[in-house]
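Researcher: I'd like a candidate sequence for this fold, 423 residues long. If you have to choose between options at a position, lean toward the conservative one.
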Protein backbone atom coordinates (compact mmCIF):
# COMPACT_ATOMS: atom_id res chain seq x y z
CA UNK A 1 0.00 0.00 0.00
CA UNK A 2 2.84 2.34 0.87
CA UNK A 3 4.42 1.61 -2.53
CA UNK A 4 1.22 2.39 -4.37
CA UNK A 5 0.80 5.63 -2.36
CA UNK A 6 4.34 6.66 -3.30
CA UNK A 7 3.56 6.08 -6.97
CA UNK A 8 0.42 8.15 -6.76
CA UNK A 9 2.42 11.05 -5.30
CA UNK A 10 4.94 10.87 -8.10
CA UNK A 11 2.12 10.72 -10.60
CA UNK A 12 0.55 13.82 -9.04
CA UNK A 13 3.85 15.73 -9.30
CA UNK A 14 4.35 14.56 -12.88
CA UNK A 15 0.84 15.56 -13.78
CA UNK A 16 1.53 19.10 -12.58
CA UNK A 17 -0.69 19.33 -9.52
CA UNK A 18 2.19 19.53 -7.04
CA UNK A 19 4.33 21.72 -9.27
CA UNK A 20 1.61 24.28 -9.77
CA UNK A 21 0.90 24.38 -6.05
CA UNK A 22 4.54 24.84 -5.04
CA UNK A 23 5.39 27.38 -7.73
CA UNK A 24 2.46 29.57 -6.71
CA UNK A 25 3.80 30.15 -3.20
CA UNK A 26 6.19 32.95 -4.21
CA UNK A 27 5.02 33.62 -7.74
CA UNK A 28 3.53 36.99 -6.81
CA UNK A 29 6.73 38.31 -5.20
CA UNK A 30 8.25 41.20 -7.14
CA UNK A 31 11.82 42.49 -6.67
CA UNK A 32 11.99 45.14 -3.94
CA UNK A 33 12.96 48.66 -4.89
CA UNK A 34 16.64 49.32 -4.34
CA UNK A 35 17.59 51.29 -1.27
CA UNK A 36 18.51 54.75 -2.58
CA UNK A 37 21.66 55.03 -0.44
CA UNK A 38 22.93 51.48 -0.97
CA UNK A 39 22.22 51.88 -4.69
CA UNK A 40 24.58 54.86 -4.81
CA UNK A 41 27.40 52.77 -3.34
CA UNK A 42 26.75 49.94 -5.81
CA UNK A 43 26.96 52.35 -8.74
CA UNK A 44 30.13 53.91 -7.34
CA UNK A 45 31.85 50.53 -6.98
CA UNK A 46 30.94 49.60 -10.55
CA UNK A 47 32.42 52.82 -12.01
CA UNK A 48 35.96 52.26 -13.38
CA UNK A 49 36.80 55.99 -13.46
CA UNK A 50 39.93 56.92 -11.45
CA UNK A 51 38.30 60.27 -10.60
CA UNK A 52 35.21 58.83 -8.95
CA UNK A 53 34.11 60.19 -5.56
CA UNK A 54 31.49 58.76 -3.21
CA UNK A 55 29.77 61.35 -1.03
CA UNK A 56 26.69 59.23 -0.47
CA UNK A 57 27.82 56.84 2.25
CA UNK A 58 26.79 57.59 5.83
CA UNK A 59 29.96 56.36 7.52
CA UNK A 60 33.02 58.25 8.68
CA UNK A 61 36.18 58.21 6.60
CA UNK A 62 39.61 59.67 7.31
CA UNK A 63 41.33 62.21 5.07
CA UNK A 64 42.51 59.36 2.85
CA UNK A 65 38.96 58.16 2.37
CA UNK A 66 39.54 55.06 4.51
CA UNK A 67 37.31 53.60 7.28
CA UNK A 68 38.47 54.31 10.82
CA UNK A 69 38.54 52.17 13.96
CA UNK A 70 39.02 54.32 17.06
CA UNK A 71 42.00 53.53 19.29
CA UNK A 72 39.69 53.45 22.33
CA UNK A 73 37.71 50.71 20.58
CA UNK A 74 40.87 48.72 19.80
CA UNK A 75 41.98 49.01 23.42
CA UNK A 76 38.55 47.90 24.67
CA UNK A 77 38.74 44.90 22.31
CA UNK A 78 42.16 43.98 23.71
CA UNK A 79 40.86 44.13 27.27
CA UNK A 80 37.83 41.93 26.71
CA UNK A 81 39.39 39.44 24.28
CA UNK A 82 39.28 35.90 25.60
CA UNK A 83 38.07 36.90 29.05
CA UNK A 84 34.30 36.49 28.79
CA UNK A 85 31.94 33.72 27.81
CA UNK A 86 29.42 33.87 25.00
CA UNK A 87 26.27 33.39 27.08
CA UNK A 88 23.06 35.22 26.23
CA UNK A 89 22.57 38.74 27.51
CA UNK A 90 19.25 39.37 29.28
CA UNK A 91 16.42 40.46 26.98
CA UNK A 92 17.05 44.02 28.11
CA UNK A 93 20.72 43.77 27.20
CA UNK A 94 23.89 44.75 29.04
CA UNK A 95 23.05 46.50 32.30
CA UNK A 96 26.42 48.27 32.38
CA UNK A 97 26.14 49.50 28.79
CA UNK A 98 22.61 50.79 29.37
CA UNK A 99 23.63 52.60 32.57
CA UNK A 100 26.55 54.36 30.88
CA UNK A 101 24.42 55.22 27.86
CA UNK A 102 21.75 56.86 30.02
CA UNK A 103 24.40 59.05 31.63
CA UNK A 104 25.33 60.38 28.19
CA UNK A 105 21.76 61.34 27.33
CA UNK A 106 20.26 62.37 30.67
CA UNK A 107 23.37 63.66 32.43
CA UNK A 108 26.09 62.10 34.58
CA UNK A 109 24.26 63.01 37.81
CA UNK A 110 20.70 62.78 36.52
CA UNK A 111 18.01 62.65 39.18
CA UNK A 112 15.95 60.49 36.83
CA UNK A 113 18.65 57.82 36.81
CA UNK A 114 19.01 58.00 40.61
CA UNK A 115 15.24 57.72 41.06
CA UNK A 116 15.09 54.77 38.62
CA UNK A 117 12.47 56.50 36.53
CA UNK A 118 13.91 55.49 33.17
CA UNK A 119 12.82 52.31 31.38
CA UNK A 120 15.74 51.39 29.14
CA UNK A 121 16.84 48.42 27.05
CA UNK A 122 19.74 47.69 24.75
CA UNK A 123 18.63 47.85 21.13
CA UNK A 124 19.96 46.95 17.70
CA UNK A 125 21.53 50.37 17.15
CA UNK A 126 19.33 53.40 16.51
CA UNK A 127 17.21 51.64 13.92
CA UNK A 128 16.27 48.90 16.36
CA UNK A 129 15.57 51.41 19.12
CA UNK A 130 13.18 53.30 16.85
CA UNK A 131 11.45 50.08 15.81
CA UNK A 132 11.02 48.91 19.40
CA UNK A 133 9.44 52.23 20.28
CA UNK A 134 7.19 52.20 17.21
CA UNK A 135 5.85 48.78 18.19
CA UNK A 136 5.46 49.92 21.80
CA UNK A 137 3.52 52.96 20.60
CA UNK A 138 1.25 50.80 18.45
CA UNK A 139 0.58 48.34 21.27
CA UNK A 140 -0.16 50.82 24.04
CA UNK A 141 -1.39 53.85 22.09
CA UNK A 142 -3.15 52.05 19.23
CA UNK A 143 -5.13 55.09 18.11
CA UNK A 144 -2.10 57.39 17.92
CA UNK A 145 -0.05 58.51 14.96
CA UNK A 146 3.50 59.79 14.54
CA UNK A 147 4.50 63.19 13.17
CA UNK A 148 7.71 62.95 11.16
CA UNK A 149 9.72 65.94 9.83
CA UNK A 150 10.01 66.73 6.13
CA UNK A 151 12.55 65.60 5.17
CA UNK A 152 13.90 62.91 7.49
CA UNK A 153 16.06 59.82 7.33
CA UNK A 154 14.18 57.66 4.82
CA UNK A 155 14.16 54.60 7.06
CA UNK A 156 12.04 56.42 9.67
CA UNK A 157 9.06 56.08 7.36
CA UNK A 158 9.72 52.36 6.88
CA UNK A 159 10.03 51.75 10.62
CA UNK A 160 6.70 53.28 11.66
CA UNK A 161 4.98 51.91 8.53
CA UNK A 162 5.97 48.35 9.34
CA UNK A 163 4.87 48.88 12.95
CA UNK A 164 1.51 49.94 11.45
CA UNK A 165 1.55 53.36 13.09
CA UNK A 166 -0.19 56.00 10.91
CA UNK A 167 2.15 58.79 9.85
CA UNK A 168 1.72 62.53 9.50
CA UNK A 169 4.40 65.05 8.62
CA UNK A 170 5.45 68.45 9.88
CA UNK A 171 7.42 71.21 8.19
CA UNK A 172 11.12 71.36 8.95
CA UNK A 173 13.45 72.34 6.09
CA UNK A 174 13.07 75.55 4.09
CA UNK A 175 14.46 74.98 0.54
CA UNK A 176 14.83 78.67 -0.28
CA UNK A 177 16.88 79.58 2.80
CA UNK A 178 18.41 76.10 3.10
CA UNK A 179 17.70 76.41 6.80
CA UNK A 180 14.96 75.69 9.31
CA UNK A 181 11.34 76.54 8.45
CA UNK A 182 10.71 77.44 12.06
CA UNK A 183 7.43 79.34 11.60
CA UNK A 184 5.79 76.49 9.69
CA UNK A 185 7.19 73.95 12.16
CA UNK A 186 5.62 75.80 15.07
CA UNK A 187 2.30 76.10 13.22
CA UNK A 188 2.26 72.35 12.68
CA UNK A 189 3.04 71.71 16.35
CA UNK A 190 0.22 74.04 17.40
CA UNK A 191 -2.29 72.57 14.93
CA UNK A 192 -1.61 68.91 15.73
CA UNK A 193 -4.18 67.25 18.00
CA UNK A 194 -3.33 67.49 21.68
CA UNK A 195 -1.18 64.61 22.88
CA UNK A 196 0.39 63.82 19.50
CA UNK A 197 3.64 61.89 19.05
CA UNK A 198 6.50 63.73 17.31
CA UNK A 199 9.79 62.33 16.03
CA UNK A 200 12.60 64.82 16.62
CA UNK A 201 16.28 64.65 15.66
CA UNK A 202 18.26 65.56 18.78
CA UNK A 203 21.19 66.97 16.79
CA UNK A 204 22.78 66.87 13.32
CA UNK A 205 19.46 66.42 11.53
CA UNK A 206 19.65 63.76 8.85
CA UNK A 207 19.64 64.53 5.93
CA UNK A 208 19.73 68.34 6.15
CA UNK A 209 22.29 69.11 8.87
CA UNK A 210 19.90 71.86 10.00
CA UNK A 211 19.23 72.07 13.75
CA UNK A 212 17.07 74.49 15.74
CA UNK A 213 18.97 77.02 17.84
CA UNK A 214 18.88 76.75 21.62
CA UNK A 215 16.19 79.43 21.78
CA UNK A 216 14.14 77.69 19.12
CA UNK A 217 14.39 74.40 21.03
CA UNK A 218 13.05 76.21 24.10
CA UNK A 219 10.08 77.50 22.10
CA UNK A 220 9.42 74.05 20.66
CA UNK A 221 9.56 72.54 24.16
CA UNK A 222 7.18 75.17 25.51
CA UNK A 223 4.65 74.54 22.76
CA UNK A 224 4.90 70.79 23.28
CA UNK A 225 4.06 71.43 26.93
CA UNK A 226 1.03 73.53 25.99
CA UNK A 227 -0.25 70.87 23.61
CA UNK A 228 0.70 67.84 25.72
CA UNK A 229 2.72 66.33 22.86
CA UNK A 230 5.17 63.45 23.31
CA UNK A 231 8.71 63.96 22.01
CA UNK A 232 10.65 60.96 20.76
CA UNK A 233 14.27 61.89 20.07
CA UNK A 234 16.42 59.99 17.61
CA UNK A 235 19.98 60.79 18.75
CA UNK A 236 22.35 59.09 16.31
CA UNK A 237 25.13 61.68 16.40
CA UNK A 238 25.79 62.64 20.02
CA UNK A 239 29.39 63.88 20.18
CA UNK A 240 29.85 63.39 16.46
CA UNK A 241 28.02 66.62 15.57
CA UNK A 242 29.97 69.25 17.51
CA UNK A 243 32.66 67.16 19.20
CA UNK A 244 30.97 67.72 22.57
CA UNK A 245 28.41 65.07 23.70
CA UNK A 246 26.91 67.41 26.28
CA UNK A 247 26.36 70.17 23.75
CA UNK A 248 24.81 67.75 21.27
CA UNK A 249 22.28 66.64 23.92
CA UNK A 250 21.16 70.22 24.62
CA UNK A 251 17.72 69.70 23.06
CA UNK A 252 17.08 66.78 25.40
CA UNK A 253 18.25 68.76 28.42
CA UNK A 254 15.83 71.55 27.54
CA UNK A 255 12.88 69.14 27.34
CA UNK A 256 13.87 67.47 30.61
CA UNK A 257 14.14 70.81 32.40
CA UNK A 258 10.65 71.67 31.17
CA UNK A 259 9.25 68.53 32.77
CA UNK A 260 8.53 66.41 29.70
CA UNK A 261 8.38 62.63 29.75
CA UNK A 262 10.36 61.76 26.63
CA UNK A 263 11.75 58.84 24.67
CA UNK A 264 15.26 58.56 23.23
CA UNK A 265 16.88 56.28 20.65
CA UNK A 266 20.67 56.24 20.98
CA UNK A 267 23.30 54.70 18.74
CA UNK A 268 27.05 54.14 18.81
CA UNK A 269 27.42 53.60 15.06
CA UNK A 270 28.71 57.08 14.28
CA UNK A 271 30.24 58.40 17.51
CA UNK A 272 32.27 55.25 18.23
CA UNK A 273 32.47 53.93 14.69
CA UNK A 274 30.69 50.72 15.75
CA UNK A 275 28.61 50.52 12.57
CA UNK A 276 28.66 46.74 12.26
CA UNK A 277 28.22 46.01 15.96
CA UNK A 278 24.64 47.38 15.98
CA UNK A 279 24.71 48.62 19.56
CA UNK A 280 22.21 51.18 20.81
CA UNK A 281 19.66 51.92 23.48
CA UNK A 282 15.98 52.80 23.81
CA UNK A 283 14.90 54.71 26.89
CA UNK A 284 11.58 56.12 28.09
CA UNK A 285 11.36 58.53 31.01
CA UNK A 286 8.43 57.52 33.24
CA UNK A 287 6.46 59.06 36.09
CA UNK A 288 8.02 56.87 38.76
CA UNK A 289 10.03 53.70 39.35
CA UNK A 290 6.98 51.46 39.33
CA UNK A 291 5.92 52.69 35.91
CA UNK A 292 9.48 52.33 34.61
CA UNK A 293 9.57 48.68 35.70
CA UNK A 294 6.30 47.99 33.90
CA UNK A 295 7.37 49.78 30.71
CA UNK A 296 10.73 47.99 30.60
CA UNK A 297 9.02 44.62 31.01
CA UNK A 298 6.81 45.39 28.00
CA UNK A 299 9.74 46.56 25.88
CA UNK A 300 11.45 43.25 26.63
CA UNK A 301 8.32 41.35 25.64
CA UNK A 302 8.28 43.17 22.30
CA UNK A 303 11.95 42.35 21.76
CA UNK A 304 11.50 38.67 22.60
CA UNK A 305 9.86 37.50 19.32
CA UNK A 306 11.97 39.93 17.26
CA UNK A 307 15.49 38.86 18.24
CA UNK A 308 15.17 37.51 21.80
CA UNK A 309 18.48 38.94 23.07
CA UNK A 310 20.75 41.71 21.77
CA UNK A 311 24.36 40.94 20.77
CA UNK A 312 27.08 41.10 23.39
CA UNK A 313 30.31 42.24 21.71
CA UNK A 314 29.38 45.83 20.92
CA UNK A 315 27.81 46.30 24.33
CA UNK A 316 31.03 45.11 26.00
CA UNK A 317 33.09 47.54 23.94
CA UNK A 318 30.84 50.48 24.84
CA UNK A 319 30.63 49.67 28.56
CA UNK A 320 34.41 49.14 28.71
CA UNK A 321 35.10 52.53 27.13
CA UNK A 322 32.53 54.55 29.05
CA UNK A 323 33.18 52.75 32.35
CA UNK A 324 36.92 53.52 32.39
CA UNK A 325 37.89 57.19 32.96
CA UNK A 326 41.02 57.00 30.80
CA UNK A 327 39.32 55.21 27.92
CA UNK A 328 36.38 57.60 28.07
CA UNK A 329 38.80 60.53 27.96
CA UNK A 330 40.42 58.99 24.88
CA UNK A 331 37.01 58.51 23.25
CA UNK A 332 36.07 62.14 23.86
CA UNK A 333 39.34 63.18 22.23
CA UNK A 334 38.82 60.90 19.23
CA UNK A 335 35.19 61.83 18.65
CA UNK A 336 36.21 65.49 18.64
CA UNK A 337 38.86 64.74 16.02
CA UNK A 338 36.17 63.19 13.80
CA UNK A 339 33.76 66.09 14.33
CA UNK A 340 36.50 68.65 13.69
CA UNK A 341 37.47 66.97 10.42
CA UNK A 342 33.86 67.13 9.23
CA UNK A 343 33.61 70.80 10.24
CA UNK A 344 36.91 71.50 8.48
CA UNK A 345 35.67 69.91 5.26
CA UNK A 346 32.58 72.13 5.40
CA UNK A 347 34.80 75.20 5.56
CA UNK A 348 37.06 73.94 2.77
CA UNK A 349 34.16 73.13 0.44
CA UNK A 350 32.56 76.53 0.96
CA UNK A 351 35.87 78.36 0.46
CA UNK A 352 36.59 76.44 -2.75
CA UNK A 353 33.16 77.27 -4.15
CA UNK A 354 33.53 80.95 -3.31
CA UNK A 355 37.01 81.07 -4.90
CA UNK A 356 35.47 79.81 -8.15
CA UNK A 357 33.37 82.96 -8.24
CA UNK A 358 30.02 81.28 -7.77
CA UNK A 359 27.24 83.88 -7.61
CA UNK A 360 25.27 81.62 -5.27
CA UNK A 361 25.44 81.73 -1.50
CA UNK A 362 27.11 78.72 0.08
CA UNK A 363 26.76 79.84 3.70
CA UNK A 364 24.43 76.94 4.40
CA UNK A 365 27.35 74.52 4.06
CA UNK A 366 28.99 75.90 7.20
CA UNK A 367 25.72 76.79 8.95
CA UNK A 368 24.62 73.17 8.87
CA UNK A 369 26.20 70.61 11.19
CA UNK A 370 26.97 66.92 11.33
CA UNK A 371 27.82 64.31 8.75
CA UNK A 372 25.40 65.49 6.08
CA UNK A 373 25.04 68.66 4.07
CA UNK A 374 21.86 69.43 2.18
CA UNK A 375 23.56 71.05 -0.79
CA UNK A 376 20.52 72.47 -2.56
CA UNK A 377 21.37 70.62 -5.77
CA UNK A 378 18.36 69.40 -7.75
CA UNK A 379 17.95 65.76 -8.83
CA UNK A 380 18.88 66.78 -12.38
CA UNK A 381 22.04 68.50 -11.15
CA UNK A 382 22.92 65.43 -9.10
CA UNK A 383 22.55 63.31 -12.24
CA UNK A 384 25.04 65.60 -13.99
CA UNK A 385 27.42 65.28 -11.03
CA UNK A 386 27.39 61.53 -11.56
CA UNK A 387 27.31 61.34 -15.34
CA UNK A 388 29.85 64.06 -16.06
CA UNK A 389 32.09 64.05 -12.99
CA UNK A 390 31.69 60.53 -11.53
CA UNK A 391 30.58 61.97 -8.18
CA UNK A 392 28.02 59.78 -6.41
CA UNK A 393 25.39 61.06 -4.00
CA UNK A 394 21.66 60.66 -3.31
CA UNK A 395 19.37 62.51 -5.71
CA UNK A 396 18.00 64.76 -2.96
CA UNK A 397 21.32 66.60 -3.00
CA UNK A 398 22.56 65.25 0.31
CA UNK A 399 26.35 65.21 0.59
CA UNK A 400 28.13 63.07 3.15
CA UNK A 401 30.87 65.36 4.41
CA UNK A 402 32.82 62.29 5.53
CA UNK A 403 33.42 61.44 1.87
CA UNK A 404 35.23 64.75 1.28
CA UNK A 405 39.00 64.89 1.67
CA UNK A 406 41.70 67.49 1.11
CA UNK A 407 42.51 65.53 -2.03
CA UNK A 408 39.06 65.73 -3.65
CA UNK A 409 37.44 68.87 -2.18
CA UNK A 410 38.52 71.17 -5.03
CA UNK A 411 37.34 68.63 -7.64
CA UNK A 412 33.99 68.35 -5.85
CA UNK A 413 33.64 72.13 -5.59
CA UNK A 414 34.39 72.55 -9.29
CA UNK A 415 31.75 69.98 -10.20
CA UNK A 416 29.14 71.64 -7.98
CA UNK A 417 30.04 75.01 -9.50
CA UNK A 418 29.66 73.68 -13.06
CA UNK A 419 26.26 72.03 -12.54
CA UNK A 420 24.85 74.94 -10.53
CA UNK A 421 25.90 77.76 -12.85
CA UNK A 422 22.47 78.10 -14.38
CA UNK A 423 20.60 77.80 -11.08
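Model: Candidate sequence:
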Amino acid sequence: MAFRTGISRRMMIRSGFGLRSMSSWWGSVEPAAKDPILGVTEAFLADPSPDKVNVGVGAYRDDNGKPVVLECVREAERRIAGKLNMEYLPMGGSVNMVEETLKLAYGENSEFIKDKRIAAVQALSGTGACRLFADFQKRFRPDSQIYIPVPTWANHHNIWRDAQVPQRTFHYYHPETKGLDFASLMDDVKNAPNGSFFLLHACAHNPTGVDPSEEQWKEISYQFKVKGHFAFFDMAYQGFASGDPERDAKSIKIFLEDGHLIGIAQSYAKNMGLYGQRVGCLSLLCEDEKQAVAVKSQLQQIARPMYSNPPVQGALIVSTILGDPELKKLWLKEVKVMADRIIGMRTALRENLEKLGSPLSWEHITNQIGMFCYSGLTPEQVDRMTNEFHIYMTRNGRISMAGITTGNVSYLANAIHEVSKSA
